[in-house]
Specification:
Elements (H helix, E strand, L loop, with lengths): L5 H22 L3 H15 L4 H11 L1 H20 L20 H22 L22 E5 L2 E4 L4 E4 L7 H5 L4 E7 L3 E3 L4 E6 L5 E5 L5 E6 L11 E3 L6 E2 L4 E5 L1 H6 L6 E5 L9 E2 L5
Antiparallel strand pairs: 1-2, 1-13, 3-4, 4-12, 5-11, 6-7, 6-10, 7-8, 8-12, 9-11
Length: 289
């Protein structure tokens, strides 16, 4: 027929992630979450889903699942209808330029995006910020060595252990730098400390990752282990909540290294400056001192 039937299916998947991300943005009360989710959803509607998937939906997990369900249903409808496109690589709203039936394409986008939006609204619940209990005194001293620096300041190592280069982090997404420049730490203790004075901007539902920001605008993600989202919080104990103010060296999480290893996951602590593109003279590892 000369038509590409794959692109409408891909559009269904992309638009479902848009719907899920938009639902988070509209439902969230936290201004930081809204300011990330709404622009990311608009990007997904135009076919660029990475900000929505990695910055919002996977972070909260349930919106990502809702997006997968919506995308699957939309893809089935697209395959059943048999519509096609005249080009490759154009999805989402720009897909109208190449699609052979705009009405059916609209129905597919409405089904996938609408279902994901609806499911996210039902399944996802924003954690209410709460005052965290005072963290117990750590059994180990907080590190004092900087592992990331830039023109705005420094990020102190949040865990005790051996610093490894970003390229050696055992996860392709983190190692590639697509989520920001950073390093890994092979920990010797199961304690995570605040890397600077700042505010907790996010705490993963699965307790394995914490986001922070400081007054200089530096945004840091601390992700304990690789693929540890699958542990559903087992072995992790967050000591802070979203919105909490923290001081450098304060305990913000403890984790069970043995539990992570028993689950067959690397326990590498990933530390990323997620908005590294906003700064100059970014240095990593020993060069950050």
């Amino acid at each position: 027929t000369g038509l590409n039937t794959w692109m409408p299916i891909a559009s269904a998947a992309n638009f479902a992630q848009f719907g899920a991300c938009l639902a988070v943005g509209l439902k969230a009360k936290n201004q930081k979450t809204r300011s990330v989710a709404i622009p990311s959803s608009m990007s997904a509607a135009l076919g660029i889903t990475e900000p929505a998937i990695f910055g919002v939906n996977m972070r909260f997990f349930k919106p990502f699942i809702a997006g997968m369900i919506g995308g699957a249903v939309g893809a089935l409808v697209a395959a059943f209808m048999g519509i096609g496109a005249t080009a490759y690589g154009v999805t989402g709203i720009p897909g109208y330029l190449t699609i052979n039936n705009a009405l059916l394409y609209t129905i597919i986008l409405a089904i996938s995006g609408g279902l994901a939006f609806f499911l996210t609204g039902i399944l996802w619940k924003e954690d209410e910020p709460k005052k965290a209990a005072a963290a117990p005194a750590p059994t180990v001293a907080a590190p004092t060595n900087a592992i990331i620096s830039c023109n705005a300041g420094k990020v102190i190592a949040p865990a005790v252990g051996t610093v490894v280069a970003q390229a050696d982090i055992p996860d392709d997404t983190f190692a590639s730098g697509v989520l920001g420049e950073g390093v890994g730490i092979n920990p010797t203790e199961g304690v995570v400390f605040a890397p600077f004075d700042g505010e907790i901007t996010s705490v993963a539902d699965s307790k394995h990752a914490i986001g922070l920001a400081n007054e200089a605008g530096m945004e840091v993600l601390i992700h304990v282990g690789v693929d540890t989202v699958a542990m559903n919080g087992e072995g992790f104990d967050d000591k802070v909540a979203e919105g909490d103010k923290v001081k450098a060296g304060q305990v913000i999480m403890t984790f069970d290294r043995d539990a992570i290893k028993k689950a067959n996951h690397p326990d590498c602590v990933v530390v990323l400056l997620t908005n590294s593109d906003d700064f100059t003279d970014v240095k990593l590892g020993a060069d950050a001192e």
